[in-house]
Amino acid sequence: MKKSLSPLNRRKFIGVAGSALAFTILPRHVVGGKDFIAPSDKITMGYIGLGTQGLREILPLLSVPELQLVAVCDPNKEAIGYRDWGKNYLRDEIRKKLNSTTWTAGGDNDIPGGLDNGKYIVDTYYKEQRSADRYNACTAYADFREMFAKEKDLDAIKIMTPDHLHGLLAIAALKRNIHVTMHKPVANRLKEGRQVVDLALQSNATTHLAAWEANTPMDGIMNWINSGAIGTLQEVHNWTNRPVWPQYTSLPTDTPPVPKNLNWDLWLGPEKERPYHPNYTNMVFRGWYDFGGGSMADMGHYSLWTVFQALQLEAPTIIEPNRSHAVDFNEKVPFRIRNDFAFPLASQVRFRYEAKGNRPAITLFWYDGGMRPAVPEVLVKQNKELPQEGMMFVGDAGIILGGFHAENAQLISGKRAGESLKTPPSDNSPDHYIPKNFIEGIKNKTQCAGSLRDTWPLTETINLYAVALRTGRTLYYDAANMKITNVPEANAYLSREYRKGWEPDHI
Known about the structure:
Elements: H1 10-15, H2 20-25, H3 28-31, E1 43-48, H4 52-61, E2 67-73, H5 89-98, H6 115-129, E3 139-141, H7 144-150, E4 156-159, H8 166-175, E5 179-182, H9 190-202, E6 207-209, H10 219-226, E7 233-239, H11 264-268, H12 294-311, E8 318-323, E9 327-330, E10 333-336, E11 347-353, E12 362-368, H13 377-380, E13 390-395, E14 398-402, E15 410-413, H14 436-444, H15 456-471, E16 475-478, E17 483-484
Parallel strand pairs: 1-2, 1-4, 2-3, 4-5, 5-6, 7-12
Antiparallel strand pairs: 7-13, 8-11, 8-16, 9-10, 11-12, 13-14, 14-15, 16-17
């Protein structure tokens, strides 16, 4: 399966899979029937990150006939210490996929997760459901660097790790011209994100950010805006109910033992050393500046990407944070905690974008932690409130209100008030997690919708959101030089101090 074909390398062979040459070498319709795809013609994939969401998204990939998962990677070997949205949700999904009513995760006999679970799921499914592939067991790695060193014939990887590893993993793959699909964000440091995008632009690899698939097309909304239905667009408001995980107002002071068979050093990766604590890890990592990107990194990619493209938003010039704070007692005297280590419980961040072409200057407002915009007067008069999550486009003569992804938008005021758009239901098929256009891009050596090449404006904004919240200061940003001009100390947060051996140049 993974051996090179002679005289063609197997990876190069995939690029011509649809050609007459491919059919001459391997007449699939003769060998295995109409829908048969020969093992030598499959896209070999390494899957990195086997926490609860990693396992949840690996399940539909097993059924994609063009793919062969040949390696899995995670620094946590056993299912110990994981958290999930329900006690048995993931276990039952895995049981259904494996057609086993008795499968258990092992470990602490609670929530599935970890390297052993990932390898078992892949091997068991392929053995039972894809025996025609003459499948050999996938290889398990704790260290992604070892995986890249030993798996010489990888076509693609999928990145499902905590946020602080996304950028490095993408850089490592793109340096090797390996195709990349990844979960959001591209990186949780601005300059690292820029490296990823630059490498994607330079590489021939097909790249894809999974959040693209959840974005709502903006065609109908832009028709309203361009036809003057709300006058001149001035503001975009987007709000989420995230965080829906605990966020912390103090650093851990206790030092529980590292779980058995968790390689804490590998989990930390490029970040500075510190004692293990479960409150850094599963499910709650995104609440820490070192390991996550906050609620906007978690959800903004799903809602704002097509908004950025439609409005041609580039770099914000001013980023203004408003955030909640925490107070504690020092003996009997209250004091405000200086929190530059964890995202606030709630925030509103305002981004200002300069005019471009015929599009006027726009202000983007992001809200999380239960914060929402002021209820428009037209809704007040109807005794209505804003939904818990939503998006609003405000012009000087009208307002468009939609769901969080701008779906099912309505003109709630203005000269055409009452008009609405119906958004088709989202695609819940297995291809939602790895769309057909990514696979076709690999075969045809092309990019696809959702390419990492197109992520920079949103990546830049989301990382500046984190820096503004971390400093608590209004920031003036020079995009040409990737520099904050009015708060010099904030520039330290645009990158990270890499531990020795974890620098992008060494990956």
